[in-house]
Amino acid sequence: MCPGAEPRSDILWQATRVHSARARGTVLTSAKNPKVVAAVRLKKRALREEDRRFLVEGAQAVGEALAEEGRLLSLFVHDELDPLAVRARQTGVPVDEVSDRVMERLTSTVTPQGVVGIAPFVDVEIDDLEAPGAVAVLHEVRDPGNAGTILRSADAAGAAGVVFAGSSVDAYNPKAVRATAGSIFHVPVVRDVATEDALVSLRGKGFAVVAMDMRGDEDLFEVELPEATAFVFGNEAHGLPSEILDAVDHRVRVPQAGRAESLNLAAAATVCLFECVRRGRATPETLE
């Protein structure tokens, strides 16, 4: 066998798979196919903004999108007999089976799960957020994994919304969406708003504004948290600037018992959001 060549059994398996798939329908094998090109362009923020659509990667996220009518516009699968493909067709969502190479072009992971969907934007305006409940305001948060994990934690905590403020990473960044594991379809998401404007709007709706600050002078577990609380989380490296810290009602820290310098941003945000749950501050719907 030549170096780098696939084992014959693998080649035969691939040939058999493509042949059987073609017996059922067309397999998209070219990255130049118009459908594939239209999907791949959504990896870039500027092009997502033009199309008002984003990629949804992974079985969990796609499944959550399919759970609500109109959340998924189309679906690409590695195997058209995948249960998600069957569900999609049953709800009228177009499904295309694609080759390994095309699936790799569509995804941002080393080992794709074999399902990628396209969904319309789901974000709302800052004035659409309503009290009571907790809101996570992300100021200049740059890491998509952190942002997506915070959104997922907000969903689990029954939060009233997540605000991607300032120059934070795009909520529709493929890595961020993947980190939400489908929670992006459950929690109101606000984008493209200045942090100061977001805080003014939230205050106007009765939210107390609480900054997460590792040097904060109040203990998270002891400070008063109203039923409507907006937590502000800063950049991973630089935290929150003085102009934001000076504008909040409380600066809180998460008490630590060990020797670690601090918690990861997503971990600290999760602790804050679940402190509201512990005190019974989740949104009424999530407590039913």
> What average pLDDT do the residues reach?
90
- CATH fold description of the largest domain: Alpha/beta knot
Question: What's the tally of helices?
Answer: 11
Give the name of the CATH architecture of the largest domain. Answer: 3-Layer(aba) Sandwich
Task: Give the beta-strand count.
Answer: 12
Question: Could you state the order of secondary-structure elements as H and E?
Answer: HEHHEHEHEHEEHEHEHEEEHEH
Spatial order of strands in the largest sheet: 8-7-6-11-9-12-10
- Helix proportion range: 25-40%
Radius of gyration: 22 Å
Number of separate structural domains: 2
Furnish the topology, listing elements before pairings:
Blueprint: H1 8-24, E1 27-28, H2 34-40, H3 45-51, E2 53-57, H4 59-66, E3 74-77, H5 83-90, E4 95-98, H6 100-106, E5 115-120, E6 133-139, H7 144-156, E7 161-165, H8 174-180, E8 189-193, H9 195-204, E9 208-212, E10 218-219, E11 228-233, H10 242-245, E12 250-253, H11 265-278
Parallel strand pairs: 1-4, 3-4, 6-7, 6-11, 7-8, 9-11, 9-12, 10-12
Antiparallel strand pairs: 2-5, 3-5
Helix pairs in contact: 7-8, 7-11
Task: Give a quick summary of the entry.
This protein has 288 residues and is α/β, with parallel strands linked by helices.
